[in-house]
Amino acid sequence: MYSEQRVNRLPGFQIYVAPIKGTQITPERFNMDEPSGVKQESHDTVINGVPATTFFGFDARMGKTSEVWFFKDHFLYEISTYKELEPWLNQWRFTKYYRSGSYFQFSIG
């Protein structure tokens, strides 16, 4: 996502998933996962019944980012994309959840 897609101006996104204890993002965890420390215009939201936090961040390779982070079954999901794709990111919906593999199927729109 960082190089080829940015050069070719193709839309892209990243999904990072990590097992986690608890249901809060500590400052230490945030700084570990978001080294820039940028968390602007943060607000709580809900994606198909799952509480989430959205914010604008920064990545040295991507520039300004739009991100949504949420917890589900002891996993922290961090979805990020380019800031200009923020409206697209806000259209995500869960269409299926597979318990055995702990993964989601998403749709957009």
What would your notes on this structure say?
Residues 1-7 have low confidence and may be disordered. The protein is built from three helices and seven strands. The protein has one domain (4-108). The chain has a five-stranded antiparallel β-sheet with strand order 1-5-4-3-2, with no helix packed on it. Strands 6-7 form a two-stranded antiparallel ribbon. By secondary structure, it is mainly β.
Find the structural class using helix and strand composition.
mainly beta
Shape: globular
**Quick one: how many beta strands?**
7
Terminal-residue CA separation: 22 Å
Q: Number of DSSP helices?
A: 3
Low-confidence stretches: 1-7
What helical percentage do the residues reach? 10-25%
What integer is the average pLDDT?
Answer: 76
Spell out the helices and strands N to C: HEHEEEEHEE
Quaternary organisation of the protein chains: single chain
Topology:
Elements: H1 4-8, E1 13-19, H2 27-33, E2 40-47, E3 50-59, E4 63-72, E5 75-82, H3 86-89, E6 92-98, E7 103-108
Antiparallel strand pairs: 1-5, 2-3, 3-4, 4-5, 6-7
Concise account of the structure shown:
The chain is mainly beta and 109 residues long.
Q: Which features does this protein show?
A:
109 residues, 7 strands, two-stranded antiparallel sheet, mainly beta
